[in-house]
Design goal:
The chain is an alpha/beta fold and 752 residues long. The chain contains 34 helices and 17 strands. The chain has five domains: 115 residues, no CATH class; 89 residues, Serine Threonine Protein Phosphatase 5, Tetratricopeptide repeat (Alpha Horseshoe); 41 residues, no CATH class; 229 residues, Spore Coat Polysaccharide Biosynthesis Protein SpsA, Chain A, CATH 3.90.550.10; 85 residues, no CATH class. The longest helix has 23 residues. It is globular and about 80 Å long.
């Protein structure tokens, strides 16, 4: 079926869905005209655009790329009668217009409430995301972009462009592990799309997955080498082969050979910024200061001026990194700044480095110079205003924030701090909390936060939708410097905000929140979690049904893959490590029943206050990771049970703050695992699981050495032993007061 000239075809879905028809962009296929509401923001505008367009143009065909359009309801509203063609393009049903009936009532004249009723029936929901809009990502509105993309993929998980977009959002959120999964899905769905493998290979290299990254580059060369050569350079047929081979060398750790390839290309094509960046990266790995200084001089010939300033700043930052052992970063930056005083980008980098050393006056002075500069740097000038505003008095702060927004109208941090984006849900819960007794809440929800600007708003917005009324929300901020603390103060006035002076760790943040709680139940919630409206109700009622339990845990799903489990209760392995029950499994109803588990995940767990009075708070030496495993074991030793409550559901990003398998993550996890068994194992249990403990210790050494993190792992073990006397003393207290035998504890331990 091909459309004739002038025919209208209505597509219910996104243009990207039509790629499936011909494996090419929609502009190249049979679609001549699409009626749609992609430029409307409100639901009534959506209705008027869609229904009005269909009535006016009477499209000959309707294609359902999303399944949630009720054709019978559409016919009732518009008077147009469609029949389902026997021929189905790809997997999308196609409907053809057969006849029309006169309308008794103009649907566009209906009152707002009636339109909303019709929309609910028409789309089987309150809202429909009709199109993929990348503007939010481009404007830095990452939370909004993530929600919109997630809504799209919820409707159609196979959307090709949507999975690519999701990967880009995760990269912007600095969540490479999640980005890797998204790009893997994108490559699977779109094997003929260029550049996807390059994106995926770069991510895999962050995790040192050389064996997976190299074949991706080789496949890219095989599939698109000719395309690269024809597009990039007609005269030099080997330039992009050189680039891809350079990537291969870089991934294999052959930085000298890689640098030669990138250097060769950028000399011919100075505007190839990717080759400049890779050259800098290779020279850092080679610790070649002379090479970087030569590169600095070479970059003087780059035009336009701002490109030159950007490259100079990147190179100087690289030199500062190499000189860090002998000279503080800001001194190296300042040395080059004196010779290049008009480089606004370098000035901003120097100010940021000074701020990190707590030289706020020096940083403020440089930020002021940037803001007052006659040169036009709207992005960094806006950021400079924002950085200055965080430490300015109230009146001056408002002035700076307004200037920031004028320079960059989409600056999310400034908007939030100025209080311009208070949501309706926030207002709603603020009113509720004013009406309820704040003196005697039934539950306290404690949210630790450290630099959570990217996702804490999502968490608090979901709490604002809870059906449970008599509760309080306590955010314990660990000295955030990204504007999230100020954003919470301005946008979420119903939140009790506890301000810690610096990042004191997850365990201390939880403990401070528990101490501040006014309720009998304490609920811990990570700042990268979205809860469902009945979540707290189900937790509270579940604990009331189980007075024998000291804690309860939720059904925790992945935020970006909502039918896959993240955690349904904590497990415990004989070699002293926790784990999430069901993690990675698809939800087929296997965890729909209440059950006793080893313990609760502190990411979204409920605890009786009396539990902490009996066994103590979280061990603050743990800082973050395994502190809940330790608490779970201490709870078991005192005879408290833990219950899994499947009707309480949350959606979790996971390791969003620290980053999965970052050096910091590996160090803290592997250090804390040792303390868990030292504190909580009896001598008999230690001897029983001795082989398992040491087998996994040696396996860790081999694995993390292979990943290039051997030194990190050894440091974690050494630092664990440094505190051995303190941990042995705590062990003495725990073992002396325990009330449960080893045999009872061993029922919960997974032996391997």
């Amino acid at each position: 079926m091909r459309g004739e000239s002038g025919e209208r075809i209505f597509v219910w879905g996104t243009f990207s869905q039509l790629y499936h028809l011909t494996d090419c962009p929609s502009a190249d296929n049979f679609i001549h005209y699409t009626i749609g509401p992609w430029d409307t923001q409100d639901l009534e505008g959506f209705y008027d655009s869609m229904i009005g367009g269909i009535i006016k143009h009477k499209p000959k065909y309707i294609i359902k790329t999303f399944p949630d359009l009720d054709m019978q309801q559409l016919e009732d509203i518009t008077g147009l009668k469609y029949t389902l063609l026997k021929a189905v393009l790809a997997r999308f049903p196609v409907y053809r217009l057969e006849s029309s009936e006169p309308l008794i009532t103009d649907p566009l004249s209906l009152p707002w409430q009636k339109k909303m009723e019709q929309m609910e029936k028409l789309t089987q929901g309150e809202w429909h995301a009709p199109a993929l809009n990348r503007a939010d990502l481009e404007r830095g509105k990452l939370t909004t972009a993530f929600k919109e993309c997630r809504n799209l993929l919820r409707l159609n998980p196979e959307d090709r462009e949507g999975n690519v977009y999701l990967g880009e959002i995760y990269l912007a959120l600095d969540l490479p592990h999640q980005a890797e999964t998204a790009f893997e899905k994108a490559v699977e769905l779109s094997p003929k799309w260029q550049h996807l493998r390059i994106h995926l290979a770069n991510i895999k290299m962050q995790f040192k997955k050389f064996d997976e990254a190299i074949p991706l580059i080789q496949e890219e060369i095989k599939l698109f080498g000719t395309v690269y050569r024809s597009v990039i350079n007609h005269n030099n047929f080997h330039v992009e082969d050189d680039f891809l081979n350079g990537l291969l060398f870089k991934y294999k750790g052959k930085y000298k050979e890689a640098w030669r390839e990138f250097d060769h290309i950028k000399r011919q094509f100075p505007d190839r910024h990717d080759c400049w960046e890779f050259s800098i990266e290779c020279l850092i790995k080679l610790k070649n200061k002379d090479g970087l200084e030569s590169l600095f001089e070479e970059a003087r010939n780059i035009h336009p001026k701002k490109d030159q300033e950007w490259l100079h700043t990147k190179i100087v930052q690289a030199l500062a990194e190499l000189n860090a052992e002998t000279r503080p970063e800001h001194e190296t930056l300042n040395l080059y700044l004196k010779d290049n005083p008009k480089n606004g980008i370098l000035k901003y980098a120097t100010a940021s480095a000074l701020e990190n050393t707590s030289d706020l006056s020096g940083a403020y002075a440089l930020f002021t110079e940037i803001v007052d500069s006659p040169e036009h740097y709207p992005h960094i000038q806006a950021n400079a205003c924002f950085r200055m505003a965080r430490s300015a008095p109230l009146k001056k702060r408002q002035e700076l924030l307004k200037k920031c927004i004028k320079l960059n109208p989409s600056h999310q941090g400034a908007q939030a701090m100025l209080g311009e984006t208070t949501s309706n849900s926030t207002k709603k819960i603020a009113e509720i909390l004013k009406q309820t007794s704040s003196e005697n809440p039934l539950a306290s929800v404690i949210v630790p936060n450290w630099n959570g600007m990217r996702f804490v708003g999502m968490c608090l917005d979901s709490l604002a939708q809870l059906h449970f009324e008599n509760f309080e929300v306590i955010v314990v901020d660990n000295g955030s410097i990204d504007g999230s603390r100020e954003m919470i103060e301005e946008k979420y006035p119903w939140v009790r905000l506890l301000k810690l002076p610096h990042n004191m760790g997850f365990a201390i943040a939880c403990n401070e929140g528990i101490k501040a709680s006014k309720a009998d139940y304490v609920v811990l919630l990570n700042n990268d979690i979205e809860v469902v409206p009945d979540w707290l109700t189900e937790l509270y009622e579940g604990m009331e049904r189980h007075p024998e339990c000291g804690m309860g845990t939720t059904k925790m799903m992945f935020l970006d893959n909502r039918d896959v489990f993240y955690n349904t209760g904590d497990l415990f392995h004989s070699w002293s490590a926790g784990g999430g029950r069901g993690q990675g499994e698809k939800d087929n109803g296997q965890y729909d029943q209440e059950d006793y588990v080893f313990g609760a995940c502190a990411g979204a767990g409920i605890y009786r206050k009396e539990l902490f009075k009996k066994i103590g708070l979280f061990d603050e030496d743990f800082f973050i990771f395994a502190e809940d495993v330790d608490l779970n074991m201490r709870s078991q030793l005192q005879g408290f049970q833990a219950v899994y409550l499947p009707k309480s559901k949350v959606y979790h990003i996971g390791t969003a703050t620290v980053g999965l398998y970052s050096d910091r993550y590996v160090y803290l996890c592997k250090r804390n695992d040792i303390w868990v068994f030292i504190k909580n194992y009896s001598l008999k249990m230690y001897l029983k699981y001795l082989y398992s403990i040491w087998k996994h210790q040696f396996n860790d050494i081999k694995y993390f050495t292979y990943r290039g993190q051997g030194q990190v792992l050894l440091k974690s073990k050494w630092d664990a032993l440094k505190l051995l006397p303190k941990m042995l003393f705590r062990r003495f207290q725990i073992q002396r007061t325990r009330t449960v035998t080893d045999s009872e504890i061993q029922k919960h331990i997974i032996t391997d």
